[in-house]
Amino acid sequence: MSMMHLTPFETISVWVVLGIALVGLAYAVFLRRQVLAQPTGTQAMMDVWDAIRTGADAYLGRQLRTILPFIAILTVALFLSVYIVPPTLEAHERFPTLTDQQLQVVIGFGRAGAFIMGALFSLIVGQVGMRMAVQANVRVAQAARSSFNGALRIAYRAGTVTGMLTDGLGLFGGTIIFIIFGVAAPDALLGFGFGGTLLALFMRVGGGIYTKAADVGADLVGKVEQDLPEDDPRNAAVIADLVGDNVGDCAGMAADIFESYEVTIVSALILGLALRSMTGHNEWLIYPLLVRGIGVLSSIFGTYIVKSEPGMSGDAMSAIFRGFLTSAAISTVLFGIVAVVYMGNVPGGWVRPFLATAAGVLLAIVIDRLTEHFTGTEGAPVLEIKQAHDTGPATTILAGLGVGMEAAVYATLVIAGAITVSILVYSGVGQTPAEEFAFVLYGIALTGIGMLTLTGNNVAMDSFGPIADNANGIGEMADLEPEARQIMADLDAVGNTTKAITKGIAIGSAVIAAVALFGSFLTDVSRVDAQVLAQGIRISLPIVFVGFLIGGTVPWLFSSLAIKAVARAASEIVQEVRRQFRVPGVIEGTVKPDYARPVAITTVAAQKELVNLAWLAVAAPIIVGLALGVEALGGFLAGVILSGQLLAVFMSDAGGAWDNAKKIIEDEPRDPARNLGKGSERHKASVVGDTVGDPLKDTAGPALNPMIKVINLVALIMAPVIVAYSSYTIAMLVIAAILLVTVFFAVRASKRGPAPIVDQPL
What are the Cα distances from residue 354, in Å, to 443, 522, 527, 557? Predict the structure, then answer.
């Protein structure tokens, strides 16, 4: 950092940002102690909690053993990747006394080390956050026996622990890399972003398959066939279902948001470096770090004030959204102050970076409201699905599909609007069209930075969902008082909406980050050979259009494999639960079912898919780049972004709407004779809709977020290599063919049935 000629203010600012990251982590520790100090309830509640904790720990341990070899191989590959192309000018500027060979070693260790750090931080966020959720669920259930506000506060603050881990570790890692590598930081930050993104993909895919296989299997037999309540202890899959809420929505989503947090700072610094080269201003690099530091502080304040009115009832959604808006308002005011004080001398003035960043905050708020409209229990779309229950499962499915498709349209238009704002903000800045293009891309990156300013709030909202869901399950299995059960049911319904909102924001941030990474892709290619993409990525070129078409297919293949994996595993759960119901005494409640076996089935099924789906995301851009060239690879990325955005929002919002429509039916007074409430035909239709939506909203849809960013980061790392070795056509085609064969066998292996389950400890 000392070689960047920073002003004293800039040097102090960077260290202050690092201190803020540590404050965020300290706040997480503070909240954790608050939550753990709360009472845990009765022995019956503790018995259920212990089964959930044991299953979650077993799953995460097995998952870690599965992915470690893959991480080791990619660490070596990232180290060797710096030997393929010469060191950058920025690397020579940062380490002027080193030779090219020495620089390659330093940058290689930096990139590989940052990859390990990104993967480790993503793993910490996922695993620690999930374990915090498991610790909180029984405490929320106990608090619900006294007050609505107490249960809400514990659930939200436990979720905030995960949110502040995401904020703190993401900001700490990016700032430390910047301090060590200075202007050469993008070389290492690519590894940091890739490590976090890859781990998020693993945890998203594995957790998503696990949770929905258990959920679908438990619902189909327990609710539809046996007419049992949601979390009836006689259902053998009920513990696997409760475990799945945590490994999917806590561990998976936390890692997902964390890697979005990483990737947006990576793209902002890469593009900021390009502007620094053009203008000589360090502000382009320091401002994104300052914005991130502001976000951590505003999230601390906004999350701590979340509470509802005293008493036994309240509006949790209003309380959570009030905290969200408070953080947004604080952030926006501080952005303006920093921009006025620090960005006044850059080309275009202070108002442009401020507007681009504020547009990101506004985008998060709009997506929040849009997602609640399409998935909330009081929104017209969910009420439309509720009405469709009257005529059976078929109309329920059709209504939900229509809601998801419509939601995808509006979400995409909102993101397009946000990108347009960035274009307008930086329109006319720069001496040439190429410079103006670089400014526009930087504005888009700032929009992504602004959108994830409220990451602490977003992750708290998401983790709140499975914590409330688990608490409700513990209340059902421990036979708590009706008043407490109603409080937990209300919190659970709000949790469904907050999870859907977080998924919407995660998808939106993935697209914004991918567009910024796409700009970084163009920038990196031009640094190797300015003539290769002198006229940009032209969709009129047939080879670019071919890449665009291929890219559009990848999210569909990826989603297909994920959904089929859920279907296969759910089928095994259905058979297992049916088998256990035939055991004398289980259905009568006199014999305890074997909860461990469904946990084992779903664990094995989830681990089987991890590497295959991850390899599809890693290998696909390499194959296209080597076989068709860097321009086709650019078209491929555009196809992935567009197709992935539409498909992810469609699946996420359709599933969320089906789920909450079912909640409305379940809250009705039970009267099967009048077709009302649980046990009615309308309820069975709603369960079918929810069951179809489960793998869409919690497996395939959310997994597309890290998949999009993995593909973009791999392309960003590979682009200079493809350009530098474009003359070695035969060799590149041979490598592409070999990789294509490996993808073929990975897809084929993913379609096979899961391995037999043996009765042994995990």
Answer: 10, 25, 28, 39
